[in-house]
Amino acid sequence: MSTKEIVVSGEQALQVAEALTATSMKILQLLSKERLDVSTIGRRLNLSEAYISEQIQVMEELQLIKVTYERGKRGIRKVCETAIKRITIVIEDYKS
After folding, report:
1. Domain containing 39 — which CATH number?
2. Is residue 95 part of a domain?
3. What is the pLDDT of residues 63-84, one digit of tens each?
4. CA gyration radius for the chain?
């Protein structure tokens, strides 16, 4: 787990704000305690693995989480952990 803080503004702030849904916050909270694979996250949140995978992909692209692939009982597991501990969103005039 990382203690990294990120500060985002402008376009990046908009992308992060859009990604921080109730589900993604729950995922980040779970991952702040331990590394988990996608299927375990889905079971704990009572959500489909496909939906969790979609959320994980968005957060990985924004560098909010790190993903590694490990051998599991039935193939490869996508294991996730937080890449950040704190996000600061700077609000400023945004020109589209």
Report:
1. 1.10.10.10
2. no
3. 999 999 998 788 888 999 999 9
4. 14
